[in-house]
């Protein structure tokens, strides 16, 4: 038992993680927000942070914790963590990649299908009596056999590509660099990819390097001047210029969108929520029991490995470049 090890939970953690976390460590829940004075008293003892994929771990918070050694994130994304500040202090950051690839890829395809075939709208059309009152729904868009463009070809991007092939779709992608050995066409940037895609799926990491990567210019390229193209975002809300997306949807620049992430979660702009042909989900990419349990076990396993002096299970890529 490691009760003597103090851990700061920086956001509301999954109930699939908290029992094992509290059993193994002395956990302080969001003191930096609820009781800063207590945090000052305890700071010399806090050796680890427990976080979710959306947690903010700023350089300012890191500076307040002189004994901090490890930040364990229950999420594949850790764009809210100031990795440079952690690295400067020799603080290790771990995350939970791979275990959620299938769930996020499944949701990306699900959002593409829902946006193309308007499945949520079809459900409402039957439930509210429109079918009987108005007759058949307007024709939708075919997904199978179309062109999928994937922005970000990491492990989840590759899982999405595999699913697209099963739908008879062609796959092209853009990323910081071409990935050798992949059977998909590489295009140098999101605008070029959008111009040659029917469905543009965003699955890049969040953070400064990708902020507003999908802007009005990319959306115009996706729409091709004919109001075509569907945008799917299962990455981070920050990767898409949300105001530009709302304009493009309202003005018919693109045909539709399937969105699981937003700029200011859980607040979603009323203008976006009012657009009838958009499909919206509340950041559920990895939200299945099996996957979230695997993520919790991995996040906890990283803490346990670190404090037992064993090799970390899934350090972030920056760790290996330390
Ligand atoms: C969850 C996610 O939202 O893994 C990520 O980066 O966005 C998610 O799957 C969250 O991180 C779970 O803690």
Account of the 3D structure:
α9 (155-166) links the parallel β6 and β7. This protein has helices at residues 18-24, 31-34, 36-42, 59-63, 83-88, 101-117, 119-127, 130-134, 155-166, 190-195, 216-223, 242-250, 270-273, 289-307, 317-320; strands spanning 6-9, 26-29, 46-52, 70-74, 92-94, 147-151, 170-174, 185-186, 199-202, 230-233, 256-259, 278-280. The strands form 2 sheets. Strands 8-7-6-9-10-11-12 form a 7-stranded parallel β-sheet, sandwiched between helices. Strands 2-1-3-4-5 form a 5-stranded parallel β-sheet. It is built from 15 helices and 12 strands. α6 (101-117) crosses α9 (155-166). The chain is elongated. The protein is an alpha/beta fold. The chain binds 2-keto-D-gluconic acid. The site of 2-keto-D-gluconic acid has 11 residues, from loops. 2-keto-D-gluconic acid binds next to loops.
Please report which band the strand proportion falls in: under 5%, 5-15%, 15-25%, 25-35%, 35-45% or over 45%. Answer: 15-25%
List the helices and strands in order: EHEHHEHEHEHHHEHEEHEHEHEHEHH
State the secondary-structure class: alpha/beta
Which cofactors or ions or other ligands sit in this model?
Answer: 2-keto-D-gluconic acid
Unreliable segments of 5+ consecutive residues:
none
- Indicate the percent of residues in helices: 25-40%
Largest sheet: 7 strands, parallel
Terminal CA distance: 30 Å
Cα Rg: 21 Å
Strand order of the largest sheet: 8-7-6-9-10-11-12
- Can you count the helices? 15
Tell me, rounded to a whole number, the average pLDDT.
Answer: 97
Based on CA inertia axes, which overall geometry fits? elongated
Strand runs, count: 12
């Amino acid at each position: 038992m490691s009760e003597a090890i103090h851990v700061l939970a920086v956001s509301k953690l999954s109930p699939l993680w908290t029992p094992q976390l509290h059993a193994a460590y002395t956990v302080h829940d969001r003191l930096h927000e609820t009781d800063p004075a207590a945090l000052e008293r305890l700071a010399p003892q806090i050796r680890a942070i427990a976080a979710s994929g959306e947690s903010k771990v700023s350089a300012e918070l890191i500076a307040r914790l002189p004994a901090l050694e490890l930040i364990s994130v229950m999420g594949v994304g850790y764009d809210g963590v100031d990795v440079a500040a952690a690295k400067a202090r020799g603080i290790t950051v771990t995350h939970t990649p791979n275990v959620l690839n299938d769930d996020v890829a499944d949701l990306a395809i699900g959002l593409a299908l829902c946006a193309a075939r308007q499945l949520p709208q079809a459900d409402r059309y039957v439930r509210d009596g429109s079918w009987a009152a108005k007759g058949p729904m307007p024709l939708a868009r075919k997904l199978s056999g179309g062109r999928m463009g994937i922005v970000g070809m990491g492990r989840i991007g590759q899982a999405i590509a595999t699913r697209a092939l099963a739908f008879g779709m062609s796959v092209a992608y853009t990323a910081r660099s071409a990935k050798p050995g992949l059977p998909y066409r590489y295009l140098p940037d999101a605008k070029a990819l959008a111009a040659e895609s029917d469905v543009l799926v965003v699955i890049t990491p969040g953070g400064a390097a990708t902020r507003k990567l999908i802007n009005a210019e990319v959306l115009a390229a996706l729409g091709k001047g004919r109001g075509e193209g569907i945008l799917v975002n299962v990455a981070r809300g920050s990767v898409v210029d949300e105001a530009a997306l709302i304009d493009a949807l309202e003005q018919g620049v693109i045909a539709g969108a399937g969105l699981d992430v937003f700029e200011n979660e859980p607040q979603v702009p009323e203008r976006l929520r009012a657009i009838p042909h958009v499909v919206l989900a509340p950041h559920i990419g990895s939200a299945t029991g099996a996957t979230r349990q695997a993520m919790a076990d991995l996040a906890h396993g990283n803490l346990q490995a670190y404090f037992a002096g064993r090799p970390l299970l899934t350090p972030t890529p920056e760790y290996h470049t330390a």
